[in-house]
Automatic annotation (TrEMBL):
Pfam families: DnaJ (PF00226), DnaJ_C (PF01556). This is DnaJ protein ERDJ3B. Residues 26-91 form the J domain. Gene3D superfamilies: DnaJ domain (1.10.287.110), Urease metallochaperone UreE, N-terminal domain (2.60.260.20). GO terms for cellular component: endoplasmic reticulum lumen.
Length: 346
């Protein structure tokens, strides 16, 4: 009976472990590479994803920060032959046991920033990275309406670029320097270097056009970029550059943006300035803001309406709205009007 109970407990533990293994996302899935991917493919995948989800480019975005940590954890394991072999055979549980037995465990051997800085030039060799040829980035200045920047929206942009297509014939590719020794005399050899190339199917550039949908996020500021990775100019035997849409605020008929604040000018009559008035202004999402006054308004007076400005990017907060009042004075007065004004104000 005791033996059967122990066996049952063992099977339950095994089943629980299997479920957790199925539910967990594999390191290969995180880096978006197949299980048998070679080292250089893993490095390229890490480079692209780490740049995309780096906290400096995703400030305040907790999902991106979590993704960045997952990417570094996966790369730390898959870039280490010993850890990768253990992971492929026994999964994360095997890495934990390996660490408990004195080895280096997955995700615990190196700081995230250390991995990133070593890979991108903060203390490690960049020889491998420098071999990756990359096409030109394409930067497009994109004028977004103030309404889209206030509420969020999308823009359709026509894009034309070079696309690599198959072409007749063969071409030299994957060129590399190979070292060999040439005998120049009895027992004497000279080291020589020769460039060796493979023969690959030929390719050519063809110009193609297509429509790109650009998502404008609420509160984006001038100079912020919407990046389409590897959608820039292609290059033979290398990675394409990136396509970057750099946001600019289009002029607006009513509002002027300064940072996260909005400014507008409203003209009122002299009578309104003296006795007060009721007035609303239509905001960017069509809600009405009450800007009336019961007191005296002086020319060029500025009133602040808290929380009625632009939304802060990746935040629930908003800036403020500043209204400057212009007082419209009459161009002339009759003698009778002058007498009445003196009687009232004199």
């Amino acid at each position: 009976m005791l033996q059967r109970r122990s066996k049952l407990i063992y099977l339950l533990c095994l089943f629980s472990y299997a479920l957790s293994a199925i539910a967990a996302k594999s390191y290969y899935d995180i880096l978006q590479v197949p299980k048998g991917a070679p080292d250089d493919q893993i490095k390229r995948a890490y480079r692209k994803l780490a740049l995309k989800y780096h906290p400096d480019k995703n400030q305040g975005n907790e999902e991106a920060n979590k993704k960045f940590a997952e990417i570094n954890n996966a790369y730390e394991v898959l870039s280490d032959n010993e850890k990768r072999g253990i992971y492929d055979r026994y999964g994360e549980e095997g890495l934990k046991q390996h660490a408990a037995n004195g080895g280096r465990g997955g995700g615990g051997g190196m700081n995230i920033q250390d991995i990133f800085s070593q890979f991108f030039g903060g203390g490690g060799s960049m020889d491998e990275e420098e071999k990756i040829v990359k096409g030109d980035d394409v930067i497009v200045e994109l004028e977004a309406t103030l309404e889209d920047l206030y509420m969020g929206g999308t823009m359709k942009v026509w894009r034309e670029k070079n696309v690599l297509k198959p072409a007749p014939g063969k071409r030299s590719c994957n060129c590399r320097n190979e070292v060999y020794h040439k005998q120049i005399g009895p027992g004497m050899f000279q080291q020589m270097t020769e460039q060796v190339c493979e023969k690959c199917p030929n390719v050519k550039y063809v110009r193609e056009g297509y429509e790109v949908t650009v998502d404008i996020e609420k509160g984006m500021r001038d100079g912020e970029e919407v990046v389409f990775y590897e959608d820039g100019e292609p290059i033979i035997d290398g990675e394409p550059g990136d396509l970057k849409f750099r946001v600019r605020t289009a002029p607006h008929d009513v509002f002027r943006r300064e940072g996260d604040d909005l400014h507008a000018t409203v003209t009122i009559t002299l009578v309104q300035a003296l006795v007060g008035f009721e007035k609303t202004i239509k905001h960017l999402d069509d809600h009405l803001v009450e800007i009336g006054s019961k007191g005296i308004i002086k020319p060029k007076q500025v009133r602040k309406f808290k929380g009625e400005g632009m939304p802060l990017h990746l935040s629930n907060k908003k800036g403020d709205l500043y209204i400057t009042f212009e007082v419209l004075f009459p161009t002339s007065l009759t003698e009778d009007q002058k007498t009445k004004v003196k009687a009232i104000l004199g």
